[in-house]
């Protein structure tokens, strides 16, 4: 990128103004935001370095000494379950010569680099440096082990989701997550068995920009055309935190219990308090789907708490992994396993139905940029998509003045 190009804003004033117009006349983000390396580089700095983003699950490392390596937006990280039960995150780089330290998930007492056997404690402290000063040596006067531990990444866990802040300078996680916690309070996430999720063992790869996965789920406009198994809500409530999330809340029309769908007793799985209260009143049970920028989607469904984790690989490649949590004995019982699997299957089917359309948008993003084609929003159905794109414009592309 030459100096002239680097000095130009990646979104023009005209494009920002068009995005922040009232939804009925607003234009969407331009095509290059979904494919250009320059845009990816800016988003990686602003969204994946300077602020909190989700990278994994605490339940991926359930036992003391469990290691879970993660690659997200180009960052090589490792989650480590500590003896005190906490999960800490470190840069997955040996302090000796900078090789990747942990290459696969495993359980250890100490962490040893395969190249020169530098060994670390679970809390990241450097424990030993064998042969560093010659045969039968373990140390050298110029090496202060206390200064050569693994580099820790600022991290926090929210309902099994591990969030990190790479540069360590973002606001407190309590501030970041406050409205998110409030949004889900009526569903009582702590009542789900967060230590024993279903699914989440495999990752699906999609040739799309990470933003398109969010946008595909932020509206119900497409439901009657793409998802025959779902009922379209008559309307839904959109909420947006300009720094953190965009969410949609509605009632589930004609809700059928998962136990019934699986040929079991209707109450094979428990209901969250909000759903139980609504059903007792003869109303549709509520749900909320929350798109937490940039890498996690959290859904409170009547019988499940569902977390979809995105792992951006590049401007045009994203992988997806999903975990589901349930309430009460049915969360882990063998008898309720068909009901849990039924929910996993439903969500896999629905999201697979969206994939072709998202990849179609991705494949044409460069072309619509070349021909100067803008996109539009449904004023009734796509308020949340509009809000989401504005969040991206603010946080990554300096659109505060256009808000």
Report on the structure:
Helices cover 26% and strands 24% of the residues. The protein is of the alpha+beta class. The strands form three sheets. Strands 11, 12, 13, 14, 15, 16, 17 and 18 form an eight-stranded antiparallel beta sheet that branches. Strands 1-10-9-4-3-2-5 form a seven-stranded antiparallel beta sheet, with no helix packed on it. A three-stranded antiparallel beta sheet has the order 6-7-8, with no helix packed on it. Helix 5 crosses helix 9. The longest helix is centred in the C-terminal third of the chain and has 27 residues, at 337-363.
Question: How far is the first residue's CA from the last residue's CA?
Answer: 29 Å
| Sheet with most strands | 8 strands, antiparallel
Tell me the radius of gyration: 23 Å
Mean pLDDT metric: 94
Helical residue percent band: 25-40%
| Count of β-strands | 18
List segments where confidence is low: pLDDT < 50 over at least 5 consecutive residues: 1-7
Label the structural class: alpha+beta
Shape, principal axes of CA atoms: globular
**What percentage of amino acids are in beta strands?**
15-25%
* SSE ordering: HHHEEEEEEEEEEHEEHHEEHHEEEEHHH
Keywords:
403 residues; globular; disordered N terminus; 7-stranded antiparallel β-sheet; 8-stranded antiparallel β-sheet; single chain; alpha+beta; 11 helices
Write a brief structural summary.
This protein has helices at residues 3-7, 13-19, 37-46, 173-184, 210-217, 223-226, 258-261, 273-280, 337-363, 365-370, 383-397, and strands at residues 53-57, 66-72, 75-81, 87-91, 106-107, 111-112, 119-120, 126-128, 152-158, 161-165, 198-199, 204-206, 237-241, 245-251, 286-292, 296-301, 304-314, 317-325.
């Amino acid at each position: 990128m030459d100096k002239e190009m680097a000095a130009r804003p990646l979104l023009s004033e005209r494009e920002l103004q068009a995005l922040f117009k009232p939804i009925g006349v607003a234009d969407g983000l331009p095509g290059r935001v979904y494919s250009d390396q320059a845009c990816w580089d800016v988003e990686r700095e602003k969204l994946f370095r300077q602020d909190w983003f989700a990278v994994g699950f605490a339940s991926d490392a359930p036992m003391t000494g469990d290691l879970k390596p993660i690659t997200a937006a180009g960052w090589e990280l490792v989650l480590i379950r500590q003896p005190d039960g906490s999960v800490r995150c470190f840069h997955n780089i040996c302090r000796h010569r900078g090789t990747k330290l942990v290459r696969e998930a495993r359980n250890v007492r100490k962490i040893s680099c395969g190249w020169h056997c530098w060994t670390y404690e679970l809390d990241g402290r450097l424990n030993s440096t064998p042969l560093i000063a010659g045969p039968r040596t373990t140390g050298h006067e110029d090496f202060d082990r206390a200064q050569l531990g693994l580099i820790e990444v600022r991290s926090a866990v929210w309902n099994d989701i591990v969030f990190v802040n790479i540069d360590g300078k973002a606001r407190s996680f309590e501030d970041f997550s406050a409205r998110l916690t409030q949004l889900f309070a009526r569903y009582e996430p702590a009542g789900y068995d967060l230590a024993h999720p279903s699914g989440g063992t495999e990752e699906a790869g999609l040739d799309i920009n990470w933003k398109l996965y969010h946008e595909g789920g932020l509206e119900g406009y497409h439901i009657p055309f793409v998802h025959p198994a779902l009922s379209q809500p008559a309307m839904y409530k959109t909420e947006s935190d300009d720094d953190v999330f965009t969410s949609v809340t509605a009632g589930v029309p004609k809700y059928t219990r998962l136990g019934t769908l699986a040929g079991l007793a209707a109450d094979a799985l428990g209901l969250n308090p909000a759903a139980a209260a609504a059903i007792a009143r003869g109303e549709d049970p509520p749900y909320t789907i929350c798109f937490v920028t940039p890498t996690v989607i959290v859904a409170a469904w009547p019988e499940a708490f569902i977390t979809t984790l995105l792992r951006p690989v590049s401007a045009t490649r994203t992988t997806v992994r999903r975990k589901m949590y349930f309430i009460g004995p049915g969360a882990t019982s063998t008898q309720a396993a068909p009901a849990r699997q039924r929910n996993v299957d439903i969500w896999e089917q629905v999201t697979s139905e969206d994939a072709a359309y998202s990849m179609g948008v991705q494949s044409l993003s460069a072309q619509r940029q070349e021909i100067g084609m803008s996109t539009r929003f449904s004023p009734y159905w796509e308020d949340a998509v509009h809000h989401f794109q504005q969040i991206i414009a603010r946080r990554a592309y300096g659109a505060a003045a256009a808000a």
